[in-house]
Structures are given as C-alpha cells and as structure tokens.
Amino acid sequence: MSKPSVIIIGAGFTGVGTAHDLALRGVDVTVVERGPIASGTSGRTHGLLHCGGRYCVKDQEAGIECIEENLILRKIVPEVIEPNGGLFVALDENDLSYAETWIDGCKACNIPFKELNPEQALAEEPYLNPKLLAAFEVPDGTFDPLRYALAFAATAKSNGAKFHLYTEVEELIFDGNGNVTGIKVQDRTSGERRELHADVVVNATGPWAGQIAEKAGAHIPIHPTPGVMVAYDQRFVNRAINRLCKPSDGDIVLPQRRMVVVGTTSFEVEDVDYVPVVRDQIDMMLERGAELIPALRQAKMRGAYMAARPLIGAGTTGRSISRTFKCFDHKESDNIEGFVTITGGKATTSRAMAEKTADIVCDKLGVTTPCVTKETPLLPYHQYYTLPD
Amino acid sequence: MAVDTNKPSSANWWKWFDPRARDVGTWAFILNRITALGLTLYLFLHLVVLSTLAQGPQAYESFLNLIKNPIYTFGELLVVIAGIYHGLNGIRIGWTTFFKGAPIQKQILYVVLVVALIFIIFFAIRMFTT
Amino acid sequence: MSTNWNITLRINRQKGQNAPHFDDFTLEVHPDEYLLDAIERVWAYHDRSLVFAHACHHSTCGACGMRVNGVEKLTCITPIHEVTKDGGIVKIEPMRNFPVISDLVVDLSSLYARMEMVGHRAVLPLSEEPAKIGVARVVHAPDDDYLRLSDCIECGLCISACPIATTTSDYLGPAILAGAQQHGLNGDENLLSLVDCVNGVWRCHHAFECNEACPSFVDPGTKIMELRNAVIVARIKSLFASGK
What we know:
The structure holds three protein chains of three kinds.
Chain A: E1 5-9, H1 13-24, E2 28-32, E3 48-49, H2 60-76, E4 81-82, E5 86-90, H3 93-109, E6 114-116, H4 118-124, E7 134-138, E8 141-143, H5 145-158, E9 162-164, E10 167-174, E11 180-187, E12 193-197, E13 200-203, H6 209-214, E14 222-232, E15 240-243, E16 252-256, E17 259-263, H7 279-292, E18 301-312, E19 325-329, H8 330-334, E20 339-344, H9 350-365, H10 383-386
Parallel strand pairs in A: 1-2, 1-13, 2-9, 5-15, 13-20
Antiparallel strand pairs in A: 3-8, 4-8, 5-7, 6-7, 10-11, 11-12, 14-17, 14-18, 15-16, 16-17, 19-20
Chain B: H1 24-54, H2 57-66, H3 70-98, H4 105-129
Helix pairs in contact in B: 1-2, 1-3, 3-4
Chain C: E1 5-13, E2 21-29, H1 35-46, E3 65-68, E4 71-74, E5 89-93, E6 100-102, E7 105-106, H2 109-117, E8 123-125, E9 147-149, H3 157-161, H4 163-167, H5 174-183, H6 189-195, H7 209-213, H8 220-243
Parallel strand pairs in C: 1-5
Antiparallel strand pairs in C: 1-2, 3-4, 3-5, 6-7, 8-9
Helix pairs in contact in C: 5-8
C-alpha cells in the first residue's frame, strides 16, 4: 500500500514546518511554491524570537505558546538564532505604570524575567536611552528568516519531501463529489503545466489563503494586515529591545548581523501581492526607534519594506485580533473533503502551528504516528541545497 | 533549468579584458595581463635579436641601423611602460597578499599609477632626447 | 525629493530552453525606493510570469542578488537613484557564473554546498566577527557571550563579480574561501588541502571585484589573502614538525 500523500501549497514557515512534521510521520509530502522559499510574508518577518512578553497581558494564549516554542526552537535550530535575550524598557511614567500588569502577565504565562535598574541596563546596552526608568531582561532572540525556513525544508527533504519552487497553483482538481484530489500547476520557469494528485491538499499560503480557498469555493476570513520594517546600518544593541507598553507601533528594535531593524505598524489592505512602502511610516519608525535608541538618528537607513500578516478572525480588525492560528478543515466548514487551510500565527509559533495542522491532516489520512518535531533537531540549512532533489 | 548562458568556461577568457561595469581593480588586472603578454613577446623578440649576434657583426650592425627609426624607440618605450607598470603592480600584488594591503588596494593602485607615470615620463624624455 | 521618476527596467527573460531576451517595463518610481520594489511591481502589475528571488528585503537573506547595468547589486538595499536617473533605463540580469533557472534567478546550490564543505558558521561569537559600531567606541563586557549571525549572507554576488569564476566553476571562489577563513584552519588537514590547491587560494588574481560587490562587509578578497598567509604558516609549521 502506498504512503498517504499530501500536497502543501506555500513554502513559508507554515508550509515548510508542516512538510517537516508530516515527513517525519511517514507521509509522502510535496510542497509547491510560486516563488523561492519564504518569499511571502515569512521572509519579511521582523525576526523576533518572541519570549511572549508582548502578548502576556492581552493575549495569554499567545504568550504561553511563544515562551514554549521559544525554548524548543533554541534547541532544535540554534544555527539560525542570535540568542542574546531581550529587554522590555520603560522610558516614562506611562510605561512604568504598565509594568505591574506586565509582570503579572509574564508570571501567568511562565515567562522568565529579571528586573534591571537603569545603570545595569545601560551597562548591558550602552546605546539605550539614558533616561530609561526601568528594564526587564527576557529570553528573546533574533533569527534569520530565510535560513529558519531552509532548515525545516532541508530536514523535510531528508525525510522524502519534494519541493517544487517557482510552481504556481492555477486550479484545484475535484472528484465527482466536490472533494479536492489535487492541483493544476504551472512551472513558472518554463511555462509547462501539469497536474499533481494527493489525498489531502494543505493551503499554507498565509495572507493569500483566502485567494486559494476561493478556488474551492470556500471563504476564509483573512485580514491581511501589513506593517513596515526599517533596517539601519549600525548594530547598536545585541538584545531585542521592546518598549514596555501596550503593543503599539514601532516599539521593537532588533539587532541582526550589523544592523538594527525597527518595527512595526499595522493596517489592513485588500491587495496582498504588492504593498507599497509608506514613507510616513518610515519616518514614524525612526521617531519611535530613536526614543529607545537615540543614536539611531545618526545611522543610515539600509532597507525598508512591508510584510502582510495573515491575521484571521471575525469582526475585530487590527491589533486586537488574536495572533494564534486557525486550521480550517473544509470538510467541516464547506463539506469539501481533502482540503485544509492553515493560516494566522506568527513565526515563533510556526512549529506548533505545523504540529496542529499535521495532527488534523493525519487524522484525515488515518496516520497514527505521533508528532516528534519538539525533540527533533533540524539539519543544517545548507542541506536543502546539497540533498538530491 | 533554462538554457545555460552563464556557464563558466575557459572560452570566456576574453571577458577578462572587458572593463565595462567593473571597478579599478579590474583595470589593474587587465593591464597586468596585457603588459605580461607584451613583455613575453618582447622577451621572445629580444632573444631573436640577440641570436643575430651569432650570425656575425654584419647581421648585428644592420639590426642596429634598423632600430634607429623612431618607431622602434616608441616600441622600446612601450616595453619600458609595460615593465614599469608590471613591476610596480607586482609590488602591489605582493603587498596586498602579504602585508595587509588588501583593504587599501585601490589607494595602492593610484600610487602605483602615479609613480609609474613619473618614471615613464622620465624615461620617455631620456629615450627621445638622447 | 518628493517627485516621482519614470524609468524603464530592461529585464532578462529566460524560460525553459528558449534563448534569453530582454523585456522593457516602464514604471513610475520614487528615486529613494529600492530596486527590488520596482521589480516586484513589474511582477505584480505588468507581467506575472516574471521569476525573481527574494525573501527578507533587508540584506539578511542574500536571495535578491542581481546584475544591475552590469554591476553586482543586492537589489533590496539598492536605491533607484543609485543606479539611474529620471527617464533612465536599468538593465537587470541574473548573477553570472551560476546556472540560470529562469529570468533573474540562478541556482546557488554549489555555493551552499561549498560553504557547508568549508564549515562556514552561520552563527558565531561577536568577538570573532565584530560588528564595528561606528558611532562611538563601545566596550562590551563578556563579548564572547553574545552570538551573532555572520556577515556572509551567501548571496553569491562576489562569485558573480569574480573574473576567475567566469572561466571555471572549479575555482572555490571568494565567498567560500572567506568562509574557510572564518572557520579557521586550526590544524584541520582536510580544510587545508581543500584551500591549498590550484582551485583554492592560489587561483585568485587580485581583481578585488569581490570586495566591491560584497554588500555585507565580508571583504572576501581580503579574507583570501589572510587565508593565504594562514596556509603558508600552516605549511611551514608542518615542515618543521615533520623535521623533528
């Protein structure tokens, strides 16, 4: 009897994470992606390995998920992480008044933190605003977006997963009962078209999940919500610097290689294929970033870009939507068998997203092998290219 | 995979001599190769000329008369230019390899070019006014 | 500068076994925008068949290297005003010396495989690759405790720019030799023989185009020279060691 087969549409964090999980469970996985790996939202992530402190007040489900996954990722894929921790910094009385609520939130989510007085904070990070009133050390980190995805993809490949990049889904294929049995794709490097078949098709296309679901006549409440990131040419800090306040715009500054990256904003769009960089938002990042790191004003901008978060939820828009992910088994929601959509979520919890998705998919396939991704170290990311296709 | 128009191959050697969209390091690289070829050709010709010595004083005398033509003096100037540049750039290459000159290779090249120019003018004047 | 420009992108197109050709796309752009944004707009609004590589859009992934008017550039951090002016034509081609997959995308497998071979470390102590903050001199106590993602983003621009790499794919190339230097010889005989050979450190002929092309402060040409010295020292040492 042949292995149960799955096609995953999308090679962002969700796609490669799910491919990795399913491949370890003995499923025959094929990933199709219309660009290169991580060329959608995932590639443009800020790169913050969250400790959960950002969510521990308003979204404790997300906070708990983050700290758990943070510790797992540090173990399974250290080669793509700058694990130097982070600081939540209070700059004014407003921030300081939030501290107690924040501390309660951290405790509720089991997020380790340590209070530093301003002298200690400045000794660790001399470029911080000297007017800071308090700082809390947390286990944040920075990760390389592409290499994070490549590491999952490499490991999936080593367990038999096939990747078809630059391959775009044009249509879904249905059987006589309206169930999905495959996809029609075009190889964008040659123009050739062909069909691929599988037992289950997983839609892991992030903010495009709605578009792909439409091909099956299903509707997903996706609210693509981009934000700006601005990279500057000096590595002023070695830790992730978070403003100690309710999640707002421009309140995170991350080190990465020889840069710092300031983010972000939040606004909804319709068209996700191209989100123009809004110059006002770049200016705002400089202003907000300079509040945390005054020397930012002396740095030169190196890059600026927009990335569309795949937020989901009915009703509310913007920052109050939960960052957790949702898996839509279209058998339940639209009576379409063989088709599953996974979207929402954030990079830090992508492994967990993949686990839940793989559980649902394996349930449909009758595969009972349990998930082992929590304990399985990933292969070196180079091996995505060195393993034979 | 598309048609491979990018394939590295020894047939691409002529691309070494295309300075378009390249920086000054490539100019040094190109001149090094041209002067090397020039000096090698000169060495060959030089040996041929010296061999006329073996053919007796008349053969050599007629050669000395031939080279009184200023065209040959110009040719000799080219050899001098080639030798000076190749030698000085050779020092630059040694410096960048062994004495941490790589980070300042462009500046060293500018100095090489200026020094070479001074020597070339000096020798040109000497060669054409004696 | 708030006025927009009109520029033409002259983009290399290659599909399957067909011969390559150039397609022109005229766009309205802001001069401070990055070239990659303009290329992405060509895909989004002009020609959905355009194939190009990108991921992070801020010089950390190394995916978007291309030749712009013949010069190697990381397009996500290349502002349009750096490569053209209002009414200008920008020729965009894939990097040299790698097999072309399609349009602007090349196959970087050999680069990644060789970086693996020489043991390039993706994450390493800050003290081994200092990030040189230029604004003021800062002394960090326990530097060695901080880890950072390494300078080299494996973009391939240096290999595209290298004249030697144009004539042979056997030459390890600047990125790889710099990667070997980052790893350090440390008495590793395998690494030593890998780099101390005709297609290793000795194939470099000092064009230093790699230093010009590198967008990420690696200066591979300089690293090749450092590696040469390390190789010589290692060989001399082994000469005396074996003489005992």
